Amino acid sequence: MLRRLSTTELLACCASRRWALHMDANAPYPDVEKLLATSDAELAALAWRDITEALTAHPRIGSRMTGSSREAEWSRHEQSAAVGADAELAAANAEYERKFDRVFLISAEGLSAAEVLAELRRRLDNNEVVERAEVRRELAKIVRRRLLRCME
After folding, report:
1. Is pLDDT larger for residue 84 or for residue 136?
2. Global pTM?
3. CB neighbours (10 Å) of residue 64?
């Protein structure tokens, strides 16, 4: 049986209160696989308003989240490779935000600034339905990594 994550830890993994509530209600988890599978299922079932709540905790890609919280530290680590190409990222971010009215979300850990920029530009061609699905997938990747960090 895995140790039970606190609400604070869950919200650091995903800022959707509904997701955190559902994850807590399903605890304890027998193993990491069940924890991750439950997270994936809960994220897939969230209403879009709950996804947008989760997005509010993510800084603009290329921006550095300030503060000393666990979430801020994780965000800085996740985006560390995406530093560079600042002017191009800023312009592409602005275009994305004009089109979709939200921050561009990508699981940037391990990606170069050029890779992030290419993905941002590719996703600018998406329509709202396709982009929402991509946002949900990227959020799930980020949440999975954060859950695993909590369990270390």
Report:
1. 136
2. 0.85
3. 12
